[in-house]
Input
Amino acid sequence: MKLKAALLTAVLAAAAWASDSPRISFSKSFPGSVPAYFAVTVESTGATSYNESEDADNAEKIQLESGLVTEMFELADRLEHFKKPLESGLKVANMGEKTLRWEAGGDRSQTKFNYSTNEDAKLLSDRFERIAESTRTLLELRRAARHDRLGVNASVLKIQSMWNNKRLVGTAQFLPLLEQVANDEAYIHMARERAAQVADAIRAMPSK
Output
């Protein structure tokens, strides 16, 4: 009984610690665009969720590189955890309503904006956009690999372009699919060759 009580205490303590662990979130609502809405939440551990609805059960889970996570939380620190307005107030076109949110235990704060001139806000928003773009591309490749063999090449080409432009993140999630494509003769040679090249480049990355 004492052992069970000790284990329960440890589990509860771990859960409490996890709930206090900082997280930053970004959502963008832009009716008429594709997608019209998405939200990304990044835990300080790098555990990340991407969702195109407000139903948590629909979220796609990925793990981010530690270097990217550190950069994003440093940007959040410089932005004072979104306690101050970021909206520029300038008359610009509608670019979608964006929300940045900070949570750490009982400390919660957020700000909304259409366009900001704050460079740190621009950088952090761009990192969230990279996460969203990478996750959508991962889902596209997953669907193509299952249902559209001819479409796999287009998906791999997009991944290769994102890699070359340093916009691909959460790369560990891509490796199994890229290796599957590279080693399966059911896919066209060009797709297999590109998948192998990107997989090799990902594996060659220094661990961070």
Observations:
- The longest strand covers residues 97-104.
- The chain has a mean pLDDT of 91.
- The radius of gyration is 20 Å.
